[in-house]
Amino acid sequence: MDPRKLARLYEQEVLPEWDERFAPFVLEAFPESFASRCTLLELGCLTGRLTTEIIRRTPPTVRLIAVEDVRDLLEKARRKIPEEDRRRVFFKKETPDRLSFADATFDGVISACIPPACRLDEVLAETCRLLVHDGFALLGTPLKGSFQEVLDVYREVLEKEDLVAVQEELDAHCRRLPDRLEAGRMLSRAGLVEGRIHLRQEVVRYPDGLALVGSALIRAHCLDACLALVRDRGWREGVLAGMIRALDTYFPDGIEVTVVMGRLEATKP
Fold it and tell me: Which domain range does residue 8 map to?
């Protein structure tokens, strides 16, 4: 989905089904106290749902840097910060897996949701690099099982279209969503310790296939990356039409899409 269109639709279509469910889940593990002066980093601030909560829960001496790769989303987040707090929040356009900050810069790294376009192992390696000794990581990320209904139908349509190479690429793409055990291994490989992973499963409902494939949430977090594996644009449109027919056939009474969110907690030794 075009970034500007996503930014335009985000607060209406995505925030209620995503941020409002999973930001509170991440905040359940938010530290209750902070040193007199510390600096926090928020990865993927989107439109600022978690950003405003971090500011509300921390003392005025805490500084927050919030990064987001979509500039229009970043501007929406910036406008949500109360005027009296704007001097301690800095917004920057960056991706969570390739950050320009120096080593050991932050006392904590937080995210309501690692963007699905990023590789979790790379984000965790960057997180460890950026944390000071005893700094904490508190990250939400979709895990294996998320969007399974969409992925199963997409794979079936690829099979009917005899797109074998794309099926293989899809399998590789799906492996980027780890299960709980593999996410724990990723924390260890990144150099983080005291790793803990908590799960929360939710469903997002759609009345029919057309509503699902047109959803900003589904497009941004799952479907666009899958459709991009089909290089031919005309064939891609055919696959999309096949998905709508299949979804309406299998789910005539509406579609429930599963999201398995993991909350990753760890410390930099």
Answer: 3-142+177-203+261-267
112 and 168 part of one domain: no
- Distance set, CA 134 to CA 109, 131, 259, 266 (Å): 12, 8, 31, 10
- Write down the residue that tokens 């492996």 correspond to: 175
- Say what the pLDDT of residue 116 is: 76
Per-residue DSSP letter, 219: I
Please tell me whether residues 21 and 103 are part of one structural domain: yes
**142 strand-pairing partners:** 261
Same domain, 195 and 165: no
Cα dist from 129 to 98, 101, 121, 178, 248, whole Å = 11, 10, 12, 21, 47
d(CA 172, CA 225): 12
Does the pTM surpass 0.90? The reply is yes
156: left (phi over 0), alpha (psi -120 to 50) or beta: alpha
- Are 65 and 10 in the same domain? yes
pLDDT at 55 over 90: yes
Residue-wise pLDDT for 158-179, tens only, equals 999 898 899 999 998 888 899 9
Same domain, 226 and 181: no
Q: Where are the alpha helices (DSSP H) in 10-48?
A: 19-27
Looking at the 3D structure of the chain, how many domains does it have?
2
Q: Are 81 and 50 in contact (CB under 8 A)?
A: no
Q: What is the C-alpha separation between 16 and 193, in angstroms, rounded?
A: 33
